[in-house]
Amino acid sequence: MTSQLIRDKKIIENDWITTELAIVDEIVKKQAGKVVAFKLSGEDYPGTEQVSKTTYRRKGKILLPLKVFLLHQNELKERLANKEIGIWLYTHEEIHNFIETLGDLNQFPIIAICVGKFADGRIFSIGNQLRNKYSYKNELRAFGDVLRDQIFFLKRSGFNSFLIRKDRDAKDAIKSLDDFSDPYQGASDISEPVWKRIKR
C-alpha cells in the first residue's frame, strides 16, 4: 500500500505505528443526527475499560492514545527517552487537563490529533494551543477524517504532517498546501501578517 502520509509537501513513509483503542461493549446514542459514544456511568470517552484493555507493541515507534500512555507512563520511560513514543488524542480530549501529568510536551517527538468527522473544527484550536500556548516544537500530525480543503488551514494552525485516509488522493492533498500563495493574517506557521512581511 502506498503511503498516505504528507510532510514538507512530500509523501513519505510512515514509521509510526498508531495504536488503536480496544473495542469494548458500549452504549451508542444517536443525538441530532450524530452518533455519540455514551455510557450510563457518565464516564469520559475513551473510558477506563477500553483504555485498560488496549495493547501496544513492545518495540518500535508507536503512537499511543493519550490515556493509554498515562496508564503505562512509568514502564514507558525508557522508550520515551529513546524517542519511540508519541501520543494521539481525540478533538474532545482537552489537553490542558493532562498537562500537569504529562510534563514538557516536547519530550514527545510526535503528537497526533484524530478527527472523527471533518465538520469538527476543534482541531484548528488544538493546533494553535499546542504551538502557541504550550510551545510544542515537534511533529504535529492530523489524521482521521481530514479533507483536502482543510489541509492548508491545518498547516496555518501548526500542523506539519497529515495522514490522509486510504480512500483519498494524497497527491491531490499536497496541492492544497499551495491553494493560497501569501496568507494575509499571521498564524502558527507564519507569525507576522503580510503587511509586515512585504514592503510595498
How would you characterize the overall build of this protein?
This protein has 200 residues and is α/β, with parallel strands linked by helices. It has a domain at 61-197: Rossmann fold (3-Layer(aba) Sandwich). It is built from 8 helices and 10 strands. The chain has helices at residues 48-53, 66-71, 77-81, 99-102, 122-133, 148-156, 170-175, 194-197, and strands at 5-7, 10-12, 17-18, 27-31, 34-38, 62-65, 85-90, 110-115, 139-144, 161-163. The chain has an 8-stranded mixed beta sheet with strand order 2-1-10-9-8-7-6-3. Strands 4-5 form a two-stranded antiparallel ribbon. It is globular.
Short descriptors:
alpha/beta, eight-stranded mixed beta sheet, globular, 10 strands, 22% strand, Rossmann fold, 200 residues, 8 helices
How many distinct helices? 8
Taking strands numbered 1, 2, ... along the chain, how are they ordered across the largest sheet? 2-1-10-9-8-7-6-3
Task: Return the CATH topology of the domain at 61-197.
Answer: Rossmann fold
The total beta strand count reads 10
CATH 2nd-level architecture of the domain at 61-197: 3-Layer(aba) Sandwich
Q: Kindly provide the radius of gyration, computed on alpha-carbon positions and rounded to a whole number of angstroms.
A: 18 Å
Strand % is 15-25%
The CA-CA distance between the termini, in Å, is 48 Å
What is the average per-residue confidence, as pLDDT, rounded to a whole number?
Answer: 83
Enumerate the spans where pLDDT stays under 50 for 5 or more consecutive residues: 30-35
Query: CATH class of the domain at 61-197, please?
Result: Alpha Beta
Shape: globular
Task: Summarize the main sheet.
Answer: 8 strands, mixed
Secondary-structure content class:
alpha/beta
Which H/E pattern describes the elements?
EEEEEHEHHEHEHEHEHH
